[in-house]
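We now fix the convention by which a protein and its fold are recorded. Here is one such record, which you should read through line by line:

>
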Amino acid sequence: MKNAWALVGLFVFALTGNAAEKQLKIRLVSDPTTFDWNRAHTDVETYVLMNIMEGLVEFDSKMKVKPLLAESWTVSEDQKTYTFKLRKDVKWSDGKALTADDFVASWQRLLAPLTAAPYAYMLYDIDGAEAYNSKKLADFSQVGIKALSPTSLQIRLRRPVAYFIQMLTFWVTFPIRQDVIDKFGPSWSQPGKVVVLGPFLPAAYKPQSEIVLKRNPLYHGTKPDLDSVLMRIINEDSTALNLFKSGGLDFVRPVNFLELSDLKTSPQLHTAPYFRTCFLNVNTSKYPLNLPKARQALSMGVDRSKIGAVLHREMTSADSLMDDTLFPAGKGTVISFDGARGAKLLKEAVGDPKALPKLELVTFATDENALLSQFIQDQL
């Protein structure tokens, strides 16, 4: 877990030339890879998709699940069958009513092999889902996803899954309109074509420049006090900060760590705990990282407790993928920093470490990642 730094300015309305418009201006660090929520897989898409779409449930301020598009749900005695009752007052942005078939269409598309959805595996606990995704099952009617009526959705799991209801807050499980996809094909999710359920709808997109969201007049929930949101696509942290200072952004995150010393006394700087775990994704198909002892040596060779100081941020070193605040750690072996032990394991795995090929570390081109990559290189 680390602290997130953000600069928040006064919301200045009427900066677009329209004196009556209330617009919030924020930053995206890059273009979204897609507006298709079945296929989306990066942090950037979060800002867009969570403002234009919704799912069956959502988290409240205390991280407890509460109903959203679902009015209620029941769970069978064996904890394997969930039946959701949908709200009847929810309409898509084109006026058509939400139905259980919209969820079935979305989850079938998410699992369809041709979709190649990065997060298809999230539905694997549903009966038959993995087999359908891996082409071992051709008949989707055999998968445990059923629309019992226009307002009733039933999900049958292959085993009890304690986290299943929490998983439904994720955007890949949000409903879709199959008729819109059939009409527009691959471009169905683009502004002007896509229909949505959230408080805003995408109005315009200029690659490498900006995304504009407009208020959805048919939104079922509390109407936003904003008319629009301008998402400016800015790769460089320093550029975003300068734009914030000049009034071109109302909110900027992250703040470049090199600027923090000058900003810590600013009343506009806000910090908050940020639940995020960063890790190295290791290619275990290549030598020597295909060897368990070599991977253990790699983990033991980096002193994670120093990373916070290197990046000038308040962080805690991670011993697991999930923070203890959310999921208390259970029993298990923690691989801690131990350079001597790591060197011994590496020698046991490969013999002479000097004969090893160079390891390549690939990361996004940011100041923070450059510093972190240099630290890891120096440690190893």
In short: The first strand starts at residue 2 and ends at 8. The first helix runs from residue 43 to 52. Residues 292-379 form one domain. Confidence is low (pLDDT under 50) at residues 1-5, 10-17.
